[in-house]
Amino acid sequence: MTMRAEEELSDLFVEGEAEMTSVIGDARGEAEMLDLQAVREDVDAVARLKLPLHDRAYAEQLTTKLSDCLRWLLAEETGAEDPLIRAYYQDAYRLLAVERRPTIETTSFGVWSYLHQLALQVTKFTHLYEVTRKARKTDR
What we know:
The chain is mainly α.
């Protein structure tokens, strides 16, 4: 991952206390949590994309950010014992498969379509993440 991509991805995370959300430990042992507002803004940006895509680099940037976010959400425990949620996981992993990602040869419509599918998966898993997080707080 390039330094710029890492900086872009870091915009999706904020430092915080572990008790606030599920956490990712970094090399320094500090906790990071998903900035749900930043994720929603990226999903909204995808919804605003119109065809033809005039800024392919921006679409690729959104693809990287949302793909990384979805991978992070997939690593969270969100009730995978439920058959419907297991199906969500299968769909998400299928979408993230390397052969499904847009390439240089992918048409604008293909990139746009992929981004919308990705945004839908991120939305589903963000909702699961929030519900799971709230349930954990009530169980305490």
